[in-house]
Amino acid sequence: MSGAAPDAAGPPTGILLAAGYGRRFDASGRQNKLLARLPDGHTVAGRSARTLAATLPGALAVIRPDHPALAHELRAAGCRVLEAPAAEAGMGAALAAAIAATPAARGWVVALADMPWLSAELIRAVALAVTAPGAIAAPWRDGRRGHPVGFGAAWREALLALDGDEGARALLKSQPVIRIPTEDEGAFRDVDVAGDLAG
User: Fold this and answer.
1) For 79-124, how does the pLDDT look when each residue is reduced to its tens digit (9 = 90+)?
2) Which pLDDT value is given to residue 1?
3) Most buried of the four, 31, 61, 134, 143, by CB within 10 Å?
4) Domain 13-190 listed as CATH 3.90.550.10
5) Would you tell me how many other CB atoms lie within 10 Å of the CB of residue 54?
6) Which residues contact 46 (CB under 8 A, 6 or more apart)?
């Protein structure tokens, strides 16, 4: 797979970051918030993964090793699953692992597994905005950046260099971002504590 040329005609690759610890949800670490149930019966991760995979088929979900229940949930929702030991170090390392695993991608749309209300329409809009290799795009409302975030293929090396838990925040602050105006609350709403699960 390595060394393959990017597919200039295809859509960007969906990346679902599902490797976080979720300590605010359960400080003991016994309950994984991504496997918590929403009012509609879906798990947080399952609903997030299903929307991303349906919009960008072949989407890749990144998890920490030894989480078989989460891996099963993500696969059942249509995602490929990457168990990345490096993801133990945080979001930046997890994203870098996903980029390394998708060398033929024409770009990436990065979503978070704890944002189950993200719409297919927003994912599609971000994907369409990063057709140029140097583009970066994200939903925007009232001066605030939302999710998902899209990166053109030219950002591969910068994304591969990410580490720790910072994610791509510094990159997003230092580069022009195509702003996609939205009123969709799903771009800004996540599951942080148990009370957030209410529909």
Assistant:
1) 999 999 988 888 899 999 999 999 999 999 999 999 999 999 999 9
2) 33
3) 61
4) yes
5) 14
6) 73, 74, 76, 77
**For the chain, what is the HEC assignment?**
CCCCCCCCCCCCEEEEECCCCCCCCCCCCCCCHHHCECCCCCEHHHHHHHHHHHHCCCCEEEECCCCHHHHHHHHHCCCEEEECHHHHHCHHHHHHHHHHCCCCCCEEEEEECCCCCCCHHHHHHHHHHCCCCCCEEEEEECCEECCCEEEEHHHHHHHHCCCCCCCCHHHHHHCCCEEEECCCHHHCCCCCCHHHHCC
Q: How far apart are the first and last CA of the chain?
A: 41
The encoded tokens of residue 40 equal 């509609």
The residue count of the chain comes to 199
Q: In the structure encoding, which two tokens stand for residue 43, read together?
A: 């798990």
By the 10 Å C-beta count (0-12 exposed, 13-18 middle, 19+ buried), 193 is classed as: exposed
Where along the chain do its domains lie? 13-190
Q: Hey, how many other C-beta atoms are within 10 angstroms of the C-beta on 155?
A: 21
